[in-house]
TrEMBL record:
Domain of life: Bacteria
Record PANTHER family: MEMBRANE PROTEIN RV1733C-RELATED
Transmembrane segments: 29-49, 151-173
Name recorded for this polypeptide: Transmembrane protein
Organism (species): Saccharomonospora marina XMU15
Record region (Disordered): 81-100
Amino acid sequence: MPDTSMYLLRLARRLRPGRSPVARGSDRIEAAALVIVVLLSLLTIPVVVTHGQRSYAHNRQIAEEAMGSRYETTATLLADTPSRPRAGRGPVSENGTRAQARWTTSEGIEFTGTVPASSGMSAGSEVPIWIDTAGEVTSSPTTPQDAAGHAAATAIATWLIAVGALSAAFWLLRAGLDQHRYARWAHEWARLNTGHGPP
């Protein structure tokens, strides 16, 4: 707690350097820049929220269109799947492997092809698959929940990038001000050492 109190005290002094009798112009510039960074970081929040809402609406529309053009059905495996995926022997799905299977569309048309399947399944086993209106195997559609999660992640990432850019600009400004202060200190010490007294 003492460390936190000291940090808050130093931050308050930076934000209000005019109350110090030894405050320099560079201190006031740094404090003003810090206030601007904080205010801009806060002002970007509604902008980011609006962007996230638009992203959600767009992704939700895509998800609804995908849900309308795909549906889930069941495929029957025509062969056993290997006990474990073989490296370099064709595409491997996140479920394990792919296998030959047969499925029927809602119109009664029968198709044969490869479908995602788990390792170690036997012929005749049934696996759920997603197919499009043409009866071809496709990926599962994005759900409205996925759209919401993607929009939230995009909004948070956008805000963090904005805050990071503002923080970087502030620290660059502070580094320049520090160099200016060090140069003035060196100049003042040089004047004192040569007997000219304070400027």
